[in-house]
Automatic annotation (TrEMBL):
Gene: dinB
Species of origin: Congregibacter litoralis KT71
Membrane-spanning ranges: none
Positions of the UniProt region annotated as Disordered: 386-410
Subunit structure: Monomer.
GO cellular component, one term: cytosol
Catalytic activity from the UniProt record: DNA(n) + a 2'-deoxyribonucleoside 5'-triphosphate = DNA(n+1) + diphosphate
Main location: cytoplasm
Its biological purpose: Poorly processive, error-prone DNA polymerase involved in untargeted mutagenesis. Copies undamaged DNA at stalled replication forks, which arise in vivo from mismatched or misaligned primer ends. These misaligned primers can be extended by PolIV. Exhibits no 3'-5' exonuclease (proofreading) activity. May be involved in translesional synthesis, in conjunction with the beta clamp from PolIII.
Designated name of the protein: DNA polymerase IV
Co-factor requirement: Mg(2+)
UniProt enzyme class: transferase
MF-aspect GO terms: damaged DNA binding; DNA-directed DNA polymerase activity; magnesium ion binding
Annotated Mg(2+) binding sites: D53, D147
Record keywords: Cytoplasm, DNA damage, DNA repair, DNA replication, DNA-binding, DNA-directed DNA polymerase, Magnesium, Metal-binding, Mutator protein, Nucleotidyltransferase, Transferase
């Protein structure tokens, strides 16, 4: 039913979107055909996607490796002055301790909270073991962070017969081999699989079948939609939009007017549709962060302090993404809006905090003494090296090595 105009139109848009680097990849043609209207000529591409998410990852690894920490409220990170909690154990979460919370706030909420230093090398090693487990079941693995990934299991490499069985097999391997627990969401697209993995956390599975997708999405709070942060959620709320059903009730024009480039995604997602492929070769071009200051920074000392804070934030992101890169760039916007960037590239790539700090500080020092007030400061790591295996995917996002099994059940 989507042959003809709609088909070529979506193909067109997908191309245009690619070159414009849009935030939400538009549907590949095959996905449009399969989801919106099956005919016997359609390619067999109803996907089976699993989103796997380790439970309280850093904290669970620490509790696994130190029996004295088990059953206790625990925060990883956050003990330093102005430190931020990187992860909290479930025991700590009961007190309202959350990741990204300042350590002082966490301690106030839970006075007996134990703090341990993060051991990113260990988390990274566990993450690689995790990747090894995933690879037994699929070649199409898209990591989102050290402890989270999308898997396209449509090809059912291990021949387990259902996506749910694959999710359970993966969770079993993780429990036995890593002595950790993971939760999984099983569905036909990425958006729903990700939301579903949160549904029975910790140590749970939740399955949303294609015929259940629209109803499942309708009940979700709007803030659980991909890309809806606190600000957007607030704007939605002021427009009377609280749930997926409320988003669905809006016209595309209305969504475009209020949410700009997210509109198309929201329009589809609120109908349970999300055509993004699991991309094994997901390529990030850079990881960075910047801050705009309410009062201009006008002394070298203030700039150095501000830079340390940005180093903290950006390094945490680099770590979370298991990234290494060769180029560090500093961005400075002056009070008069003149903007400059300075970059340095190194070999071998930056893969320690020390190296990242050294390069970042060097770039700032070269710009001192500060000639005028600074309103924005930012750092970026780019020329990233992929930590993934080479991609095994064909153009359709379906594994080339295995036949597509239309019959694989959820
Ligand atoms: Mg997690």
């Amino acid at each position: 039913m989507l042959y003809g105009a709609a088909y070529s139109n979506s193909l067109h848009r997908a191309r245009a979107d690619k070159s414009a680097g849009g935030a939400y990849p538009l549907p590949r043609w095959s996905m449009v055909l399969s989801i919106n209207g099956m005919t016997e000529n359609d390619p067999p591409v109803m996907r089976k996607i699993i989103h796997v998410d380790m439970d309280a990852f850093y904290a669970s690894v620490e509790q696994r490796d130190d029996p004295a920490l088990r059953g206790k409220p625990l925060a990883v990170g956050g003990s330093a002055k102005r430190g931020v909690v990187a992860a909290a154990s479930y025991e700590a979460r009961k007190f309202g301790v959350k990741s990204a919370m300042p350590g002082v706030t966490a301690r106030r909420r839970c006075p007996q909270l134990l703090f341990v230093k993060p051991r990113f090398e260990v988390y990274r090693a566990v993450s690689q073991q995790l990747h090894g487990i995933f690879a037994r079941y699929t070649h199409i693995i898209e990591p989102l962070s050290l402890d989270e990934a999308y898997l396209d299991v449509t090809a059912d490499l291990a021949g387990l017969g259902s996506a749910t069985a694959i999710a359970e097999a993966i969770r079993g391997d993780i429990r036995r081999e890593l002595r950790l627990t993971a939760s999984a969401g099983v569905s036909y697209n990425k958006f729903i699989a990700k939301v579903a993995s949160d549904q029975n956390k910790p140590d749970g599975v939740f399955v949303v079948r294609p015929e259940e997708g629209a109803a499942f999405v309708a009940t979700l709070p709007a803030r659980r939609f991909f890309g809806v942060g606190p600000k957007t959620a607030e704007r939605m709320s002021s427009l009377g939009i609280q749930t997926g059903a409320d988003i669905r009730a809006q016209t595309l024009g209305f969504l475009e007017q209020h949410f700009g480039k997210s509109a198309h995604y929201l329009y589809r997602a609120s109908r349970g549709e999300d055509y993004r492929a699991v991309k094994a070769d997901r390529e990030r071009k850079s990881i960075g962060g910047e801050r705009t200051y309410s009062d201009d920074l006008s002394t070298d000392e203030a700039l150095r302090d501000a830079l340390e804070h940005i180093i903290d934030i950006v390094w945490e992101r680099i770590h979370r993404n298991n990234a290494r890169g060769r180029t560090v760039t500093i961005k400075v916007k002056y009070a008069d809006f003149q903007q400059i960037t300075r970059a340095r590239s190194v070999s071998p790539p930056v893969d320690t905090r020390e190296a990242f700090e050294r390069l970042s500080r060097g770039l700032l020092e070269a710009l001192l003494p500060v000639p005028k007030g600074v309103r924005l400061l930012g750092l970026t790591l780019s020329s990233l090296e992929s930590s993934q295996e080479p991609a095994h995917t064909g153009e359709s996002g379906v594994a080339e090595s295995g036949p597509v099994q239309e019959s694989l059940a959820f």
